[in-house]
From TrEMBL:
GO terms for molecular function: FMN binding; riboflavin reductase (NADPH) activity. This is Flavin oxidoreductase. Coiled coil: none annotated. Transmembrane segments: none annotated. SUPFAM superfamilies: FMN-binding split barrel. Keywords: Oxidoreductase. InterPro entries: Flavin_Rdtase-like_dom (IPR002563), NADH-dep_flavin_reductase (IPR050268), Split_barrel_FMN-bd (IPR012349). It comes from Streptomyces longwoodensis. Residues 1-147 form the Flavin reductase like domain. It holds the Pfam family Flavin_Reduct.
Amino acid sequence: MHRLDPEMCVVTATAGEERSGCLVGFSSQCSLRPVRFAVWLSKANHTFGVARDADFLAVHLLGRDQHALAELFGGETGDEVDKFARVRWTTGHGGAVVLPDAAAWFVGAVVQRLDGGDHMGFVLDPVQWDAGDPAAGPLLRLGDAHDIDPGHPAE
């Protein structure tokens, strides 16, 4: 598994008055027709508790030059810090929290939840997106984020 170097993303969730977000390393398109995308959230993560009750999630790709954003969402926990007080954000489809400075993003309706052990999979139907600048630099990958210590409690 150490040879895999997936793209990292920040997933944000809103349920009621609560919002949260975390750095995610497990995500992928999972269907062509209809288009579907799956993200996997750690059950130990604050964001999981919010996402479990959310109808929409926002998925944000980060450029390699956005390591500080990855560190905020991966190295801090929403149990202790309001991450959104430190970044520019806006409200997207269905009340989703969108980080407009991300390299690219989409909001997806949650169509299925899958128990994968210590992570829960959220299958998303994309309903709103910004593909960003296709000529922008490379995306942040797992290898670029190894120095980020997880902010959520140990599992």
